[in-house]
Records
---
Amino acid sequence: MPRKTNLERADSRRRPVVEIRAPRSRPRVDFTLESLDFKNVNLLKQFVTDAGRILPRKYTGLPAHYQRRMTRAVKRARQMLLMK
């Protein structure tokens, strides 16, 4: 069900205006699970911010098992001093 704004909730006598949200497109995963390795730094840098923080699934759009594998690979690459 679409959300209503605070203005719409307060004024219940009027017909509520409904926000229509566009569906979020799912990004295609164009790499294999085997390529998610701690040595593949160029691929891992796509999922890390400039400050070095790992992006959540909400932004990466990866499936859960890819996200877990990617997180593990980033942490290993940090320990091996391949990434910041």
---
Amino acid sequence: MQRKTLLGLLGVLGIWLTAGFALPLVNVLDIFTPTQLMVFRGFLTALMAFIGLRGVIRPVDKRLYLLAIVLPLATLGLFQDIRHWGAGPTIIIITATPLVNLLIGAFLGRRVTLAGIVGLALVLGGVIMAQEVEHFQWTGFAWSVFGTIMNGILYELFARAGNIPALQKCFWTCLGMGVLGLALSFQESWAPIMEPGTAGLVLTFAFIGGFLYWLSNVIAFEKLPTTEASVLAQGETPFVILGAYFLLNENLTLVQGLGVAIALCGAGSLAYWLSKQKDPKQTTSE
């Protein structure tokens, strides 16, 4: 296995683990609105990146501008569709993000691999089995589609900004998230943040679900082919389900457990295929 591929797969594993631990905290922190959580996640993560950069911020180029615009929009779409029709259907639509990358790849002339298609089918099929959709809601569906498209574009931008240091990308994108969240929630009550226990949870959420999560994304999409990395990133969904099961004591039915297993098998098979490739970029050259 090439060192670049190994680093990319470790980045994917980081996405799974950080999402599985941090996203269940969204329910724990339900005293805050989704846009308030965008503020905490955005500004605190940007501060952590700023410390890591020792205060040295490079001039912004157009790729960083685009990242700083697209990430907040993708996050807003995710939070809004969860609010309108729940986490279950939202996750199903968001897991289809690789379809956006497949379409972009086809437009750019990237070759679609059979391993990527099979992996996506298994991951998406497993996620559908693991989620319960009680009702259809057009507003929620529209926000889900919007968030999915923004997510796919974000993945493409991650890959194209490969020569920009990861912490620089982390700083500017998360700063944009915080600004948008603040613009949409400045009238909300911020009093609960003054409680020590709550402040500790918010810091934990920002460090794991913000700083570590986005660095993992940057590494994964810099080192792996974009479409395959997009499919592998969706393996975070079964880890979120498992995280809710272990951390929040949520029930996991037999069908849901089977769906989680199928999704992880799909991601695992694609990861194994990538590990056997001599040149992981050759099938998706820009």
